[in-house]
Amino acid sequence: MLNPGFVTRRALAEWQDAPVFLPQFQFHEKHRAVIATTRPEKILPLVAEFDIQQDAVVRLLMLMRQLPQKFLANKNGPEVKSFGLHSFTLLKNAPSELCYGLRGQFWRADFGLENVPNINAYQTSVAPGSAKLLLRYRVMEIKEGQHELCTETFIYCPDRATRLKMAAYWLAIRAGSGWIRKRTLMAVQSRI
């Protein structure tokens, strides 16, 4: 069954393990990979240092996503910066969990990113018209020598108009976003 990633109020009320940094959300995506290793402490550092530009498929997907921005950019305007994990704010770096935050108007050609220098800035209320995103990676032991690396994306929109814009954007990018997450998991899996 296809899961479009929309979270209803009822589903959220019954949600197990909602993220501390974003307990309310309307969009969710989750991907997993099983990693055979006796050194699980090496998994999350590989996630943190992974540059999505290293992967040709991901690089192509990100290039396609940034085409409108490049097309609309004025030749004398600012250079279009690459988008990646470096664009996020690190919220948590623990042995079994990494959390990154992002705020903005993701459906805009330039992503409409807000300046979020630290956790406090991320946790302030988001204004109507903008959204808040949390990217969470977790490592959990399945059995000795086998661990699950899970990546989840959570998005919160404070008002109906923003939810509608985000929903349209979510439907347009969800497959590509999922592919990027899966490729990241595969890359980490192959480096262990």
In short, what is this structure?
The chain is an alpha+beta fold and 192 residues long. The protein has helices spanning 9-13, 43-49, 56-72, 119-123, 160-191, and strands at 27-36, 89-94, 97-104, 131-143, 146-156. The protein is built from 5 helices and 5 strands, in the order H-E-H-H-E-E-H-E-E-H.
Question: What does this molecule look like?
Answer:
With about 190 residues, the chain is of the alpha+beta class. The chain has helices at about 10-15, 45-50, 55-70, 120-125, 160-190; strands spanning about 25-35, 90-95, 95-105, 130-145, 145-155. It has a five-stranded antiparallel sheet, covered by helices on one side. The model has no long low-confidence stretch (mean pLDDT about 85).
Q: Any key phrases for this structure?
A:
192 residues
> Helical percent range?
25-40%
Estimate the global geometry from the Cα principal axes. globular
Q: Beta-sheet strand percentage?
A: 25-35%
What number is the mean pLDDT? 87
* End-to-end gap: 32 Å
Order of helices and strands: HEHHEEHEEH
Question: Biggest sheet: strands, sense, closure?
Answer: 5 strands, antiparallel
Helical stretch tally: 5
Structural class: alpha+beta
Low-confidence segments: none
Secondary structure: number of strands = 5
Strand order of the largest sheet: 1-5-4-3-2
| Cα-based radius of gyration, to the nearest Å | 17 Å
